[in-house]
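Workshop exercise sheet. Pairs work together: one partner reads the sequence aloud, the other fills in the structure field after running the prediction. Swap roles for the next sheet.
Pair: D.N. / O.F.
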Amino acid sequence: MPRAGKQIEWCIVRLGEDSNWWVKEVSDDVHWDVDGLSIIDPRQISHLLDLIEPLKEYQFDDSIFDTAFIAFRIQKDLGDGLIRLVRSKESYVDAEEPLFGLPNIVDDENSPYADFITQITKARVKMLNDLIDFEQKLTVDEVEDNIREEENNNFIEGKAVHLFDEATSILDYVPAGWELDEDEGTSSATEEEIDDFPEIEEEDTTEISKEESLKWDEDEEEETDEAYEGGPPTDDEEDGDEDLEEEEEDKL
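Structure field:
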């Protein structure tokens, strides 16, 4: 993690085996240490923005997102899973092109990114206390301790924690043994797909039924026409038919 808030103009990022992007090289390698430095891609930015949307009701200022992450746009694909990024002045919400987000860190504890983590934790705790009837109110310290324990386990195992996982572990946090029926203001991919799925109008269904009905009638006519393929009946066959008719008349 970088220890100074020096501006960097470009960086080269690589796609890791975990499908996350990691910084490989920066324009200012004096003040920025790329060891374990992660960066979020446009898809992850969109997901985080969706997750923080409901937190606005719990005194979270979403404008902090633009200060917590330094915006970069794609300049060139270098191949072999490497991309060169350059600084962008666009806002993440109003961006006209895909943006990456590098955590804006002055030091490990005092930075816009650190403030972002603190604010989403506080807002998440307020939201959980509002939606779940705990016997005792959930506290920020409890959430931080639980998340820190998991991060320490990853550190012991030699796993680098990507900043996307760090943020979502807070934004998706629910205490063990509890669950939320619905996260207000959020929508899953399934719900979005359902909303985008076009409705079938009744008149269209009727037209389909008519076409199928006509098709069935045509099939029945074809089956009737093809039921007998022989020539005209012989005299013996006609006599047999007349005997049958006489027998049926006698029965009556």
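Discussion prompt: Confidence is low (pLDDT under 50) at residues 1-5, 183-216. What would you look at next?
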